[in-house]
Amino acid sequence: MKEFNFSEGEVLLINKPYNWTSFDVVNNIRYFIRKTLDLPKIKIGHAGTLDPLATGLLVLCTGKFTKKIDEFQAQEKEYTGTFTIGETTPSFDMEKEVDFTFDYSHVNEKLILQTVQKFTGTFEQIPPVFSAVKIGGKRAYEFARNSEEVKISSKTITISEFEITNIQLPVIYFRIVCGKGTYIRALARDFGETMQCGAYLSALCRTRIGNFELKDALDIDILKSIIIEHTNNKSSPII
User: How many domains does the chain contain in total?
Assistant: First the structure.
């Protein structure tokens, strides 16, 4: 049975629930550990934010391992998900209601695969307005939620693998391997614009960060039950 030492440092792989923010997960587990193990000063952070409507792998670091967060965030990431074409939303995902609709009768498999090639490699991407990108000390989403116009500079990103796994128009299924700073919501926007039909991100799951994989991640309740089991096992103390 694994022994934890949260103060010295642990890496926890969590399967983030739908409609939870990454901070919700961190705050929930921090509170649980503090209360259950009487560790009022325990530090916990996450390596790479997932949007509330995304699911999948969230890497948490505790104690002294929080110093590894930047290292983990910089690692390659893998995602699966879907684009829905023929419509757009202000947030480029399902957080906001559809604002425009477009004809997509010209879209076929050939056009989709040709468009994939345009978004494979290293190129410039403008992050979404509804994002945590900092502009003059404020997050971009703070401007967006106040209906304030703001200009966001493009960033260089790398998508090393972009695979279409299924096509059921208006839904396109994908798998993407990318580098740090890639916004899949922004990719949905650009993908739809390039095909002249609009698109938004309708599902997203992170399946890998570096060598950490979703298959090894735990649901929050399962992690909590493991921690409780350890606390009740005097031969395997948790500190």
Answer: 2
143 in a structural domain: yes
* pLDDT at position 4: 82
Give pLDDT tens digits for 127-138.
887 655 555 555
Q: Which two tokens stand for residue 9?
A: 């440092």
User: What's the pTM value of the predicted model, to 2 decimals?
Assistant: 0.89
* pLDDT tens, position by position, 34-72: 998 888 888 999 998 999 999 999 999 999 999 999 999
E-state strands within the chain: 11-16, 44-46, 55-62, 77-85, 87-88, 100-101, 121-125, 134-135, 138-139, 155-168, 171-178, 199-209, 212-213
Is residue 1 domain-resident? no
Catalogue the active-site residues.
51
CATH code where residue 147 lies: 3.30.2350.10
